[in-house]
Amino acid sequence: MNIIFDTQSLYYLPQYIPVFKKLCEKGIKSQFVFYKNSHQDLIQGVIDNYNLEHIWVENQLQAIDYYEQEKSDWVFFANSFCHLERLHKVSKSAQLGHGIGPKSSYYTKSSQAMTARFVEGEYRLSRLQSMYPDDTFIDVGFCKLDPIFNNEEIDGALSLEGFSDKKQTILYAPTFYPSSLELFPENWPEHFSDYNILIKPHYFSISKEKYKCHLALLNHWSTFPNVYLAKVEDYSLVPFLDKADLLISDASSALFEFALLNKPVIWCDFLKLRWSYKGIFSFRFKKRMDRDYGEYANIAVHASKYKNLKKLVVEQLAKPEKLANTRLALSEKLAGKLDGKASQRIVEYIIENN
User: Fold this and answer.
1) β-bridge partners, 303
2) pLDDT tens for each residue of 287-325
3) What angle do CA 241, 247, 251 make, to 5 degrees?
4) Pfam families, from UniProt (predicted)?
5) Cβ distance 245 to 195 under 8 Å?
């Protein structure tokens, strides 16, 4: 049996690696296809760390040529793929999404039918099945967090030299768009000097020219002594989730992943929107977000403005159990079973349906 992981972006790896490790345990051969970009040296370091069998391609056309040549049993994707018709003549396809956030793209990326899509929970399963009744969806849970639930050693564990053991740790993890990042003051780490601060921006914010204004702010914040700014090589959010006592974020899947650990979350409702998403064009923002956005919002306390943030942080860290019941109640809807066995269920399915 042979498995290939199509890795168009580095940040797909935290979802792939738990499955890869389970495959290794069963003696099943895996291979990774990486797409050439400006961070090849960084990616090569990750490859070397896991000793991944791999090749490099320029684009999806080169990838499909390779898949036709290899004729593997399954090819995993974290997003859509343009050449499924060609692929399905030689291999089965599996979709394993890289996030569980509130964006409508979670559902629309299934518009191209893969052989199977692994999803998180009965609610998402039934909703996808009603949208695409002829497709195959399997509820397995959210394998990205398996290492935490299994109390395993976390890959890429953070070495936080200079951080105080006596201080609680805040994680700020904004998405790239729509984001709260540009509405934080330049000196905001000073306002939270009583805390250690981890900043884990979206990969796009630190890697794409389009978001260079994000990077300038982030680099400035990294000069404060109580801040650790994730580097490009800190591609996985999991070590940050593991270390933090509280999360601050916006319309990001990080909110929900952290809430699954039943730790307090603050949701920033203040977002920097492009003019094309404001006023008469606000329907574009609503279309971008999932219809369950409002219900999911109950998983956190909300900061309508930056000036409200400090008070909420103090309150939530003083009583972290305050929204525990709500977080637990929404966990099943967000991610299904939280037993650390999602990657195991994925591997069992592909073996049984080979």
Assistant:
1) 268
2) 545 444 456 678 889 999 999 999 999 999 999 998 898
3) 105
4) Glyphos_transf (PF04464)
5) no
DSSP strand E in the chain: where?
A: 2-7, 29-35, 54-57, 74-77, 92-96, 116-119, 137-139, 169-172, 196-199, 227-229, 246-249, 265-268, 301-303
More confident residue, 52 or 335: 52
* Domains 2-142+337-352 and 169-335 equal at CATH topology level: yes
Q: Answer whether 336's CB lies under 8 Å from 142's CB.
A: yes
**Backbone φ/ψ region at 117: left (φ over 0), alpha (ψ -120 to 50), beta:** beta
**What CATH class has 2-142+337-352?**
alpha beta
Task: Please state the domain extents for the chain.
Answer: 2-142+337-352, 169-335
Q: 270: helix, coil or strand?
A: coil
The pTM (predicted TM-score) of the whole model is 0.85
Between residues 151 and 232, the one the model is more confident about:
151
> Residue 301: what are its φ and ψ, rounded to 5°?
-90, 155
- The answer to whether 257 touches 180, Cβ cutoff 8 Å, is no
Q: What distance in Å separates the CA atoms of residue 170 and residue 128, rounded to the nearest whole number? A: 35
Rounded to the nearest 5°, which phi and psi values hold at 153? -65, 130
**Is domain 169-335 in CATH 3.40.50, yes or no?**
yes
Handedness of CA 154, 160, 164, 168 (dihedral sign): negative
Q: Does the structure show a pLDDT above 50 at 329?
A: yes
Q: Taking the CA atoms of 114, 286, 127 and 21 in sequence, report the sign of the dihedral they define.
A: positive
